[in-house]
Write a structure and sequence with these properties.
alpha+beta; about 400 residues; four-stranded antiparallel sheet; Alpha-Beta Plaits; Beta-Lactamase; PucR_C-HTH_sf; CdaR-like_regulators; 8 strands
Length: about 400
């Protein structure tokens, strides 16, 4: 045990001096004399020494099949309560001992702490690229510079994949939150699910430019990441941080990220006042139309003027003509189904419909007017131009 304690102290001191995690893995290799593999999820495996891949694959297959192997051991690397990767040791020449496993465990603890410190520092320094990312978002970026920037990321998939912008907007709060660990966790979650992210932090807002590197089950993976972030926020220091999340249009080329950004902002306006709606721009088609109408004040006023008799009548008589009309249209003007949904007898429904006709005119159900009427009802019931965010 003394030898193990001495190694643990040595490896912890080493993490304070080095610039790259590879030196930790190299020390593990030299100390045990066993092959070492570091698997960061979503990235290529790193072998120390850079040999023995075929042996590793065979022993790993045996380990996975039997959940044990005398010649193979692994330990998960966890950062901020999430699995970041794993370190494996293996050998054909001798069996893995209990001491080897304990040394592996101590090494992974030190490695996790080093990676967390490195990621934290990197996140703090990312402010330098914020100006460039802003120009990418607003569409003013030089395409040659953008191409060069993506090439520098050492991932060829970034040049030929789908992109989207995700915005998280926070409710103003008297409490100041340091979002560094939240950003670290979000980066880890997205990368683990096959995404590459570029992050811009603004006052009360995080903007993610996200590349989809796997091309499968995109929406399912996005929702999974968002839900994990909600759980992390709820279970940690960020419990009081209220936010709204919106996803812009999914585009097929990095040149069109600005389009995704603009649609993400529109989606955010919609979801800020209607948290039950989908995160995705593509799912909010009718609401996007409503938002564009609300941006045009003259059309918005026309809708309000047309429906004003109904709203005034409901206010004066404490009735439900607006709700009745909306349900009636949703039920394709089927009276029995409408009455059942409203929990009223058909005679009451007939009375309400007669009153609606007297206020709007007998032709309000003609095809063209009916279509306009449904949009007008949505336009006057939702206020997507509101700036305050409701808590989720």
């Amino acid at each position: 045990m003394r030898r193990l304690d001495d190694y643990a102290q040595e490896i912890n001191k080493l993490t304070l001096k080095i610039n790259h995690y590879e030196q930790i893995l190299m020390r593990l290799y030299k100390f045990l004399g066993l092959n070492v593999v570091f698997n960061i999820f979503g990235q290529q495996s790193q072998f120390i020494p850079n040999i023995g891949q075929s042996v590793y694959e065979r022993l790993r297959k045996e380990f996975n099949a039997n959940e044990t192997s005398p010649y193979f051991a692994k330990c998960d690397v966890n950062i901020l309560e999430e699995s970041y990767g794993e370190v494996c040791i293996f050998s054909e020449e001798r069996e893995i001992t209990e001491f080897d496993s304990l040394v592996l465990d101590r090494t992974v603890i030190a490695l996790s702490q080093f990676l967390l410190r490195s990621l934290y520092t990197e996140e703090k320094q990312n402010l330098e690229s914020r100006t460039f990312l802003h120009s990418w978002l607003d569409g003013s970026v030089n395409l040659m510079e953008l191409n060069s920037f993506l090439n520098e990321q050492n991932n060829y998939k970034l040049l030929n994949c789908r992109y989207f912008v995700l915005i998280q907007k926070f409710q103003r709060s008297k409490q100041n939150f340091d979002l560094t660990y939240y950003k670290l966790y979000s980066r880890s979650i997205f990368e683990k699910n096959g995404f590459a992210i570029f992050l811009v932090e603004l006052p009360n807002q995080l903007i993610y430019i996200i590349a989809d590197l796997t091309q499968q089950d995109l929406k399912k993976r996005i929702v999974g990441c968002i839900e994990k972030l909600r759980v992390f926020k709820r279970n940690n220091y960020y419990t009081q941080l209220k936010m709204t999340t919106a996803v812009g249009q999914i585009v097929n080329d990095y040149q069109f990220v600005s389009n995704s950004f603009e649609t993400a902002k529109d989606t955010l306006l919609i979801r800020m006042n209607s948290q039950h709606l989908s995160y995705f721009y593509e799912d909010l088609f009718i609401y996007q139309i409503v938002l564009q109408i609300q941006k045009n004040t003259s059309i918005l006023e026309m809708a309000r003027d047309f429906l004003k008799p109904l709203y005034d009548y409901d206010l004066k008589h404490k009735s439900q003509l607006v709700e009745t009309l909306q349900i009636y249209l949703q039920c394709n003007c089927m009276k029995q189904e409408t009455a059942e949904k409203l929990f009223i007898v058909r005679q009451t429904l007939y009375h309400r419909l007669d009153k609606i006709e007297s206020l709007l005119g007998s032709d309000y159900l003609l095809p063209q007017k009916r279509l306009a009427l449904e949009i007008m009802l949505l336009t006057t019931q939702y206020n997507f131009q509101e700036n305050e965010i409701r808590a989720i």
